[in-house]
Amino acid sequence: MMSYEAYMSQVIQPMRDELTRNGFQELRTAEEVEQTLPNAKGLTLVVVNSVCGCAAGLARPAVVHSLNHAKKPDNIYTVFAGQDKEATAKAREYFEGYAPSSPSFAIMKDGKIMTMIERHQIENNDLQTISNLLTSAYDKYSE
């Protein structure tokens, strides 16, 4: 019989792969987050990934689509809410002024939060609208 952890790992892996195969670097520990986010130069996008339907049907496809834009983030990272709990909690410490939300997208510049696209902006929109929210933020905060 498969353990719960092994089962979840197997179920979750394709959700991780959808981002990593598109260039996102996973931050899986609090230490990785601490070493990476405050030191990231330029425009950084952090995807707070999730197992929910709106992550699968909207968030991940929209964020991948947004990377086709002329201006795009210099750094792209992801943490997985509910899976890599310590990493996600540590990342959220950098999202000052925003309530925990997953899925969500944090736009940071030189290690500081600029804006967030939160779950309520994702689950009530279509893929193109979500992609446009992201690309508008890239345009606004790029140098």
UniProtKB/TrEMBL annotation:
A Pfam family assignment: Disulph_isomer
InterPro entries in the cross-refs: BrxB/BrxA
Family note: Belongs to the bacilliredoxin family.
Protein name from the UniProt record: BrxA/BrxB family bacilliredoxin
